[in-house]
Amino acid sequence: MTHIFHLMHRFIPATLCLLIVSAVVMGADPHSDTTVDSRVTRRILRQHEEDGVHTSRIPGLATTPAGTLLAVFDLRHQSSADLPQDIDVGMIRSTDHGDTWSSVKPILDFDKNEPGTHGNGVGDPAILVDAQTNTIFVAAIWSKGDRGWKGSGPGITPDETAQVVLTKSTDDGLSWSPPINITADIRGRNPQWRLFFCGPGNGIQLGDGTLVFAAQFREPAGPPHSCLLYSADHGQIWTVSPPAIPAEPPTSEAQVAELPDGSLLLTMRDESHSGNRAWARWTWNEPPASQPPGAQPAGRWSEPWHAVPDPTCMASLIRHPEGLLLFSNPNSPSERIALTVRTSTDDGRTWSAGKLLDSRDSMYSSMTVLKDGRIAILYETSGTLTFARFPLSWLTQDGP
């Protein structure tokens, strides 16, 4: 099948080639990589120059209460570069566990033709499902002008600093609200910060209904710190936690999972390039819902620890309904290669050797659990966004 795919690609336009390959049974792997057994199915969902978009990057993946899969990602129209440039947040959805997908729909899009805005881009999405209200939130960072990682400064307004925006859907991802700017609510207490944004990847809903995004902010001098953004009232008021690691090392892109006792496990990209992931545990002093609106978070961070090789990259962390923690990232201290999925039975203190999902170049990934208990993952490899799914047994049983 791989040989056929490459022959087709030589003589058939890329988009048509993708459609033909996608029509083939998912058990047939469209990649040259052969490390995955028959329990894993994969297909390319986005590739270079598809729909006239130069690059699709930064995946987020979630399952709605109806069982619908929603995938969000950057539509980087002109190049593969980060903000600032012309970037929109795109979304596709599947109602059959990933067998078929809708066409792409921009759900956050600011006017690229507005003068002086450097493309008016918005990107780095994180998706969160509120199962109690059947509302899906997507958070992203909006750069009006040179307000990306390097150009964002202190302040509150779009002309000073990057903006935290949300869009939400109440009809299972079919339609989405106009952008909701929550920058003033989040940054009002900390206008000196140079940047704040969520994820990217996915947020979670806790057992008591609290909504939580992993997030990060940059100090006035520049160092970033991973933290939490949470809401106990279904997204009306958002509160920022203290930094997980207030000093060294600097940490940035993070993901969060709830542990059985209600505490939260945070995995963080270590910007000191240590070659390992940074981890910390957040314990509530009292339930989030009992805190007065706007109060400082009633909780504390553990001492951080390092575990799992990591090449300073975004990763994915989820908790399966059966109790296992699952973690995916490139399995290397220095190179973005060998996407591997691991399990933990001790709240993230130690991790299994894992199963290799893709041996090639691999970067960002986002996992979710399907309604039937299988795991789905959307990840970056070889210039594509590739979707895979597999049963939990692939991770827990011996074999390739």
Describe this entry's structure for a reader.
- It is a single chain.
- With 400 residues, the protein is mainly β.
- The protein is built from 4 helices and 26 strands.
- It starts with a helix and ends with a helix.
- The geometry reads as globular
Parts with pLDDT < 50 across at least 5 consecutive residues:
1-34
Number of helices: 4
Helix content bin? under 10%
Structural class: mainly beta
Question: Largest beta sheet: what is the strand line-up?
Answer: 1-26-25-24-23-22-21
The portion of residues forming beta strands comes to 35-45%
Q: Which features does this protein show?
A:
globular, mainly beta, 4 helices, 400 residues
Short description:
Helix content is 7%, strand content 42%. With 400 residues, it is mostly beta strands.
How do the strands and helices of this protein lay out in sequence?
Elements: H1 2-11, H2 14-22, E1 41-46, E2 55-63, E3 69-76, E4 87-94, E5 105-108, E6 121-130, E7 135-143, E8 163-169, E9 180-181, H3 183-187, E10 195-198, E11 201-202, E12 204-205, E13 211-218, E14 224-231, E15 239-240, E16 251-258, E17 264-270, E18 276-284, E19 299-301, E20 305-309, E21 316-319, E22 325-330, E23 337-344, E24 355-369, E25 375-381, E26 384-390, H4 392-396
Parallel strand pairs: 6-11
Antiparallel strand pairs: 1-26, 2-3, 3-4, 4-5, 6-7, 7-8, 8-9, 10-13, 12-13, 13-14, 14-15, 16-17, 17-18, 18-19, 18-20, 21-22, 22-23, 23-24, 24-25, 25-26
